[in-house]
Design a protein that fits this description.
- It is globular and about 65 Å long.
- A hairpin with a 2-residue loop joins strand 5 and strand 6.
- The chain has helices spanning about 85-100, 170-185, 215-225, 280-295, 310-315, 330-340, 380-390, 400-410, and strands at about 5, 10, 15-20, 25-30, 35-45, 50-60, 110-115, 130-135, 140-145, 155-160, 190-195, 205-210, 235-240, 245-255, 260, 265-270, 300-305, 320-325, 345-350, 365-370, 390-395, 415-420, 430-440.
- Helix 1 (about 85-100) runs parallel beside helix 8 (about 400-410) and helix 2 (about 170-185) packs antiparallel against helix 3 (about 215-225).
- It has 3 domains: about 5-60, OB fold (Dihydrolipoamide Acetyltransferase, E2P); about 85-120 and about 275-440, Rossmann fold, CATH 3.40.50.150; about 130-260, OB fold (Dihydrolipoamide Acetyltransferase, E2P) (Beta Barrel), CATH 2.40.50.
- It has 8 helices and 23 strands.
- By secondary structure, it is an alpha/beta fold.
- The structure holds S-adenosylmethionine.
Length: about 450
């Protein structure tokens, strides 16, 4: 097959492919970084875009670094560990503003923006990991999805020994739980192992997602194993027979919750509580948001997609009233409990889909906070939000593409005043953004 020499001049997010040019066409090349010079073979072509595979590295970029994780070249979790962190930040910020310009048609030169904020920790920053059990012919393995490129068609799990973006205490947990799963390998009982870790208080919760419960003798053995692991809390989760993706929770060991501490506030976390995955970086975003809310004198805030109320409780002291809305019952129960233990009675939480929320008098609200999932706002949610005509809106997003799509509609009625970005996810293609808008007069 014919080969070509390509100079990589950019990295395309979110795919993390190196970008080069060949005879005027753009070429995407996985497993390269900015300024690599590589020999490639073209694998496919779609709408004038070429997709290529490296067959030889001719010159390695000065921006390369040795990946810290032994699984980097096989694991589907991180894609940028071989690029120095400063360059990771640059390409994320560029991706955000290019996306806002291209999709939202935002005039990015005429808005106030601040430089992307680095994560306080770039290793061991994640507070949650979900591993998969896979039954092979002779054993059960516990691992993550492999990297998958366009010239392959594999969905495979590989066994992991460590995850340097999660927690340094993972290895002994994996080895004990794998050993235990192998004792029961005939039964193929387990689907996932989920671990949750707190970064300011050092607590760990272990959650086994199982197909059925253990016989008494195996439960005793399981308890012996987990006793060695210095865990704060252990649960079994079983998928409910109902078709609503809910789980039955069974508390097995230790406390019923783990606790995170942010400033002087305590937050309880249960197996199904939503929590941003990098709490130290999240705190920086919340600090910025709080600063902006104080500067514009926000008093009565409505917060859609509030999760377990961390943000709302942290800013409550500075406002008159804050109302959080989330569709997850687990999140809302947890948010109410957290408001209670932090004595924050001006935080009120409603369990509801945003699309159906009619419980309050909207005309009293001066500020709206939005923090939807990666898919962004549904059409129905956006229709409702635009009808409310709330004077100030803060939109927090972990997906520049859906943020930009939604902003395009906001821009008919609102003006973007400020954009900030935060690296919640070092070594991966993701970033978090905060957009502040005011209604057009
Ligand atoms: C990105 S999380 C934000 C959580 C929270 N703001 C935080 O910082 O921890 C998105 C949240 O939206 C909730 N959610 C998703 N779709 C929803 C909907 N249609 N209506 C209400 N809540 C929804 C999820 O339960 C989840 O808690």
């Amino acid at each position: 097959m014919e080969s070509h020499i390509i100079q990589i001049y950019d990295i395309a997010l979110p795919a993390c492919f190196g970008v080069g040019k060949l005879e005027g066409k753009t070429v995407f090349v996985p497993e390269t970084v900015l300024l690599d010079k590589v020999r490639v073979e073209i694998v496919s072509e779609k709408k004038n875009l070429l997709f290529a595979k490296v067959i030889d590295y001719i010159e390695l970029s000065k921006f390369r670094q040795q990946p810290a994780c032994q699984h980097f070249y096989i694991c589907g979790g991180c894609c940028l560990q071989d690029l120095i962190y400063l360059k990771q930040l640059e390409i994320k910020e560029k991706y955000l503003f290019e996306t806002l310009k291209r999709i939202a048609k935002l005039d990015i030169n005429n808005i106030e923006k601040s430089k992307i904020v680095a994560s306080p920790d770039i290793y061991f920053y994640r507070n949650k990991i979900k591993l998969f059990f896979l039954k092979q012919t002779d054993r059960v393995i516990l691992g993550l999805n492999k990297k998958e490129y366009f010239w392959q068609n594999i969905k495979e799990i590989f066994p992991i020994k460590e995850c340097i973006i999660f927690c340094s205490r993972l290895s002994p947990i994996i080895s004990e739980i794998s050993e235990f799963a192998n004792l029961l390998s005939k039964n193929n009982l387990f689907e996932n192992l989920i671990l949750r870790d707190t970064k300011f208080t050092g607590q760990t919760m272990l959650i086994l997602v199982a197909r059925s419960f253990l016989q008494e003798k195996y439960l005793t053995l399981f308890k012996e194993k987990i006793a060695k692991l210095n865990l704060t809390s252990v649960y079994f989760l079983f998928k409910s027979a109902k078709k609503d993706n809910s789980y039955k929770q069974l508390h097995i060991f230790g406390q019923e919750f783990i606790q995170e501490k942010i400033l002087d506030r305590i937050f309880r976390i249960y197996p199904l509580t939503f929590l941003q995955s990098n709490i130290k970086a999240t705190k920086l975003l919340y600090d910025k948001l709080k600063e902006l809310l104080i500067s514009i004198r926000s008093k009565r805030i409505l917060s859609f997609y509030c999760g377990a109320g961390f943000l709302e409780i942290l800013i409550a002291q500075n406002v008159e009233k804050i109302i959080g809305v989330d569709m997850s019952k687990d999140n809302i129960l947890c948010a109410r409990e957290n408001a209670l233990i932090n004595k924050q009675d001006n935080c009120i939480f409603f369990e509801s889909k945003v699309e159906n929320f009619t419980n309050i008098e909207f005309k009293n609200i001066d500020t709206l906070i939005l923090d939807p999932p990666r898919s962004g706002l549904s059409k129905a949610a956006l229709d409702l939000i635009l009808k409310l005509k709330i004077p100030r809106v803060f939109y927090i997003s972990c997906n520049p593409a859906t943020l930009a799509r939604d902003l395009l509609r906001f821009l008919r009625f609102y003006k973007v005043n400020y954009v900030a970005s935060f690296d919640f996810f070092p070594h991966t293609c993701h970033l978090e953004s905060l957009v502040f808008m005011e209604i057009l007069k």
